[in-house]
Amino acid sequence: MERLLRFPDELELLRRSTRQFLERECAPRYAEWEAAGVVPREVWLEAGALGLLCPAAPEEHGGGGQSFLASTVIQEEITGLTLDCLGFPLHSDIVAPYIVAFGTEDQKRRWLPKMASGELIGALAITEPDGGSDVASLRTRAERRGDHFTVNGSKCFISNGQLADLVIVAARSTGEGGHSGLSLLVVETADLPGFRRGRNLLKLGAHAQDTSELFFEDMRVPAANLLGQEGGGFRMLMQQLAQERLLMAIRSVAAAETALRLTTDYVKQRRAFGRSIFEFQNTRFELAAMRTELLLNRTFVDHCTQLHCERKLDAVHAAMAKYAASEMQFSLMDRCLQLHGGWGYMAEMPIARLWADSRVFRIAGGTTEIMKEVIGRSL
């Protein structure tokens, strides 16, 4: 499909090597990982050895030192092969940037090299059972006691939660409510008293992506693990949300492109009433409409990606991209599944997996309704 973005030759090489790794090491084992509900740690180490983790982190801290376009390439290839079970982009492009942007030099040296190698797997713990998208209602508390914080509370829907060695936890360290008083603590989970993982949650889709509840009971976190300033958590979250929502939009468009390609191929091969399904006018009209909607979203998301590379992407345009792309994606997935007929409902078919996996995109990273609120406030 036509692209507004232009990728330099070295990123096209990265695209090729990423695809080869995914086709060789990941795609053949997908069913096994779905049954297990988790991707094995050795796959993370293999990805790290190939430079597929933290590509935009500084080279002096073990990262790839590349632009956000490198992250875009890796995300598109993962989604294009229907492998969104891999938590690499969350780890590399949502968790690591908090440390890059707000960490001290010591924190960067401690954590980023091992995140880039796959030795440490990262997660971001914001959502709570009663909070959803409402960050101001967070109840997890972090009480400062000399050289450490004592943390009590719980989180839910935490991607990479079963595997994570490093969890950035949003907790209330001062005040009783609202946006003020939130702090971000980096929790090193290995043998940490008071830290407990809950069950690996069974979801509608993305079954190989481990998603967990996390519990903290008098958990002691060193004050040296405070990220940025105490009480400055909300500001940091807001600064990073634009990239997170852009990533969701990139994933949505890539998944929709895959679904449309698979469906176009399928309807040309599948026959009914003596001819291919593609020969029916309704099929061609549906494909034409979907291609148009997809290209419109692709162009806008590419535009926002370019803005982000130039450090010009604002919260409103990121919300627009996430809202438009995720709504388009789900509508397109449903129509593509319909064109597969009864076979589209079979779990063994890629379109069924894409349909199930796509539903979360209208929720994760801020619901569609939150995106409309962000956009509406700017009017």
What topology emerges from the helices and strands here?
Blueprint: H1 9-26, H2 30-36, H3 41-49, H4 68-80, H5 88-102, H6 105-117, E1 122-125, E2 141-145, E3 148-159, E4 166-172, E5 182-188, E6 195-200, E7 211-222, E8 226-227, H7 233-269, E9 271-272, E10 275-276, H8 281-309, H9 315-339, H10 350-358, H11 368-377
Parallel strand pairs: 1-4
Antiparallel strand pairs: 2-3, 3-7, 4-5, 5-8, 6-7, 9-10
Helix pairs in contact: 1-4, 4-7, 5-6, 5-7, 7-8, 7-9, 7-10, 8-9, 9-10, 9-11
Number of strands: 10
Order of helices and strands: HHHHHHEEEEEEEEHEEHHHH
Distance between the first and last residues' Cα: 32 Å
Instruction: Tell the overall outline.
Output: globular
Across the major sheet, the strand order is 1-4-5-8
Number of alpha- plus pi-helical segments = 11
Low-confidence stretches: none
The major β-sheet equals: 4 strands, mixed
- Can you give the helix content as a percent range? 40-55%
Roughly what fraction of the amino acids lie in strands?
15-25%
Mean pLDDT: 95
Radius of gyration: 21 Å
Class from helix and strand fractions: alpha+beta
Summarize the structure.
The protein is of the alpha+beta class and 379 residues long. The protein has helices at residues 9-26, 30-36, 41-49, 68-80, 88-102, 105-117, 233-269, 281-309, 315-339, 350-358, 368-377; strands at 122-125, 141-145, 148-159, 166-172, 182-188, 195-200, 211-222, 226-227, 271-272, 275-276. The chain starts with 8 loop residues before the first helix and ends with a helix.
